């Protein structure tokens, strides 16, 4: 099959790759209908990498597809079922899984990171990670379920209440999903900070009240957020210092973006003086069903997020467009 394979040292090649096969009773094979390119895919391919992986590996973990083969113990999965897939299989047996904290599982072998992913025609996955999704949801929107489920986990922990203010650093796909969910939760105002004008426009389309460049925010902050923001989300991975500074007294700061190369100064005393809660989160915690319901119901306007839908043969161009900032979300359709 054709696949986008990461070979290390920033090298991603589009090449023939062996078809996946079932190697365990609870495994399934999914024919990929669509797969989004994530910011973490770009981080993996950076030099030096901003996200770990084990090359050679097929990239891609935001997928929707159809089950075409099942092992001997597939649970509810069956051939022909349209599914989205949690790419972070939790073991269920480590100390953190047994303590009810599967997002902290120490034995995750993530699709598209440590095992072959879905920037390909087919992908294998544990059957327990597959969730049915309506045939009515367009493929490029269904491919947003996985990142949305991760964001829903983060917003659940932030516990934003109607009328509370929110600031989101970054208007990539994750930042845009944060803005959409914060607004749907009653956040007001929801402010997105993003240097790219094209992405600021999309932020307004998905529900943000203000989409500002960092420079604009400096001049308008006092009028928009005189007391600071009740909830702040760093969707970039290098804005924690700024997030702490803009946070209101008693605020919650969500650290979501990942960049292993970012080293930033932090005024720790501000956390203490403001009684701020700072927490990190980046994967799901039983939030796939909620994300699927949100997308199937049309509760969020996510269509503006997907800027490019391209064939697998153009996956490398898709990676380049996302890296350049010309795209907000690239979805590959094999």
Keywords:
Quinone Oxidoreductase, Chain A, domain 1; 28% helix; alpha/beta; 7-stranded mixed β-sheet; Rossmann fold; 334 residues; single chain; 6-stranded parallel β-sheet
What does this structure look like?
The chain has 334 residues and is α/β, with parallel strands linked by helices. It has 2 domains: 171 residues, Medium-chain alcohol dehydrogenases, catalytic domain (Quinone Oxidoreductase, Chain A, domain 1, Alpha-Beta Complex); 133 residues, Rossmann fold. It is built from 11 helices and 16 strands. Strands 3, 5, 6, 7, 8, 15 and 16 form a 7-stranded mixed β-sheet that branches. Strands 11-10-9-12-13-14 form a 6-stranded parallel β-sheet. The protein has a 3-stranded antiparallel β-sheet with strand order 2-1-4, with no helix packed on it. α6 links the parallel β10 and β11. It is globular, with a radius of gyration of 20 Å. The termini are close together.
Question: Secondary-structure map with pairings?
Answer:
Elements: E1 2-8, E2 11-16, E3 27-36, H1 39-45, E4 57-58, E5 62-70, E6 82-85, H2 95-98, E7 122-126, E8 130-132, H3 139-142, H4 145-158, E9 166-169, H5 173-184, E10 190-193, H6 197-205, E11 210-212, H7 214-224, E12 229-234, H8 240-246, E13 247-255, H9 268-274, E14 277-280, H10 288-297, E15 308-311, H11 315-324, E16 330-333
Parallel strand pairs: 9-10, 9-12, 10-11, 12-13, 13-14, 15-16
Antiparallel strand pairs: 1-2, 1-4, 3-5, 3-7, 3-16, 5-6, 6-8
Helix pairs in contact: 4-5, 4-10
């Amino acid at each position: 099959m054709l696949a986008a394979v990461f070979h290390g040292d920033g090298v991603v090649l589009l090449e023939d790759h062996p078809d996946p096969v079932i190697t365990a009773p609870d495994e399934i094979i999914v024919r990929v209908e669509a797969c989004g390119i994530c910011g973490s895919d770009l981080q993996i391919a950076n030099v030096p990498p901003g996200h770990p992986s084990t090359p050679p590996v097929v990239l891609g973990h935001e997928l929707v597809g159809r089950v075409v083969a099942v092992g001997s113990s597939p649970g509810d999965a069956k051939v022909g079922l349209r599914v989205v897939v949690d790419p972070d299989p939790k073991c269920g047996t480590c100390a953190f899984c047994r303590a009810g904290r599967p997002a902290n599982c120490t034995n995750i072998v993530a699709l598209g990171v440590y095992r072959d992913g879905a920037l390909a025609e087919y992908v294998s996955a544990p059957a327990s990670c597959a969730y049915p999704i309506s045939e009515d949801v367009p493929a490029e929107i269904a491919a947003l379920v996985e990142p949305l489920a991760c964001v829903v986990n983060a917003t659940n922990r932030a516990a934003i209440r109607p009328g509370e203010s929110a600031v989101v650093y970054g208007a990539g796909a994750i930042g845009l999903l944060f803005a959409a969910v914060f607004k749907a939760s009653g956040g007001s105002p929801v402010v997105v900070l993003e240097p790219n004008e094209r992405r600021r426009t999309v932020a307004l389309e998905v529900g943000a009240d203000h989409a500002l460049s960092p420079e604009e925010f400096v001049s308008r902050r006092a009028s928009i957020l005189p007391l600071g923001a009740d909830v702040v989300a760093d969707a970039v991975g290098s804005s924690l210092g700024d997030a702490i500074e803009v946070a209101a007294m008693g605020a919650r700061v969500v650290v979501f973006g990942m960049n292993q190369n970012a080293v930033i100064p932090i005024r720790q005393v501000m956390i203490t003086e403001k009684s701020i809660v700072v927490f990190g989160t980046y994967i799901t915690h039983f939030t796939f069903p909620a994300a699927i319901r949100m997308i199937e119901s049309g509760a969020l306007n996510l269509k503006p997020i997907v800027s490019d839908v391209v064939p697998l043969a153009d996956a490398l161009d898709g990676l380049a467009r996302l890296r350049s900032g010309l795209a907000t979300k690239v979805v590959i359709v094999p």
